Amino acid sequence: AFELRKRHGIDHRRIRRVHVDIPRTGTHERMDYAAIPYRGPYHTIDQCLISKPFAIASILIEGNLTFDTVRRLQHDPDLLNLAGKIELKEVGDIDGWNLRMAVEMEDGSVFQGDGTDIDQSHLYLSWDAATAKFRTLTENTLGRRRAGDIIDLIGNMEQLDSIEPVTKRLAPKPKKTRAR
């Protein structure tokens, strides 16, 4: 979805239907795994995170799938509408990280992609790629300093006595309330 959106400048409001073929065997989540094909409504963040239609619709709308995107689009009527147009089908003629996607537009044009369009470096991250992705996903929420502190702690985890210093920094800071 990411590459098709980027390559073709897809306007999500003009999508008629999205067909996605997912391998029956390989590394993708199975269709019978709880809530993979769920198309909404999305009452919880967990529903958003496990739903392939939510992920695909988010990427087609926003061009990414960050935690901020998930929160912003969780109750968005455009996302719910688009997720309802996404059809997942398990197939036996592909496997691994491969898949096929066809985005059918209202004017009849179809944009297609498959597993060769997936940047595999995002699936098996190097330390540098993982820390860059972590910063991208967390700095708006945690701040640059906290994100950096977490990266440093994880990078030196073998020297920690417990994981508590990491989890404390991941927990949201309490909201400040005004004294009355």
Describe this structure in a few short sentences:
The chain is α+β, with helices and mostly antiparallel strands.
Task: Considering the chains and any ligands shown, give keywords for the structure.
41% helix, alpha+beta, single chain, four-stranded mixed beta sheet
Any overview of this molecule?
- With 180 residues, this protein is an alpha+beta fold.
- The protein contains eight helices and four strands.
- The chain has helices at residues 2-8, 45-50, 52-62, 67-73, 77-83, 127-142, 144-155, 164-170; strands spanning 15-23, 86-91, 100-105, 110-114.
- Strands 2-1-3-4 form a four-stranded mixed beta sheet, covered by helices on one side.
- α3 packs across α5, α6 (127-142) packs antiparallel against α7 (144-155) and α7 (144-155) runs antiparallel to α8.
- The longest helix is centred in the C-terminal third of the chain and has 16 residues, at 127-142.
- It is globular, with a radius of gyration of 19 Å.
